[in-house]
Amino acid sequence: MRRTSSILSTGAYLPSRVLANAELEKMVETTNEWILSRTGIRERRIADEGEFTSDMGARAAEQAIELGGIDPKSIDLIICATCTPDTIFPSTACHIQHKIGATRAAAFDIQAACSGFLYALVTADQFISSGVYQTILVIGAEKLSSIVNWQDRNTCVLFGDGAGAVILQHRPGARGVLSFDLGADGAQTEILSIPAGGCRVPLTPEVLDQRLQFIQMSGKEVFKYAVNAMNRSAEESLEKAGCKPEQIRWFIPHQANQRIVDAVAQRMNVGLEHFVINLDRYGNTSAACMPIALHETNMAGKLDRGDLLLMVSFGGGLTWASTVLEW
Ligand code: ACO
Question: Which domains does the chain have, with CATH numbers?
Answer without folding.
Answer: 6-169 (3.40.47.10), 177-326 (3.40.47.10)
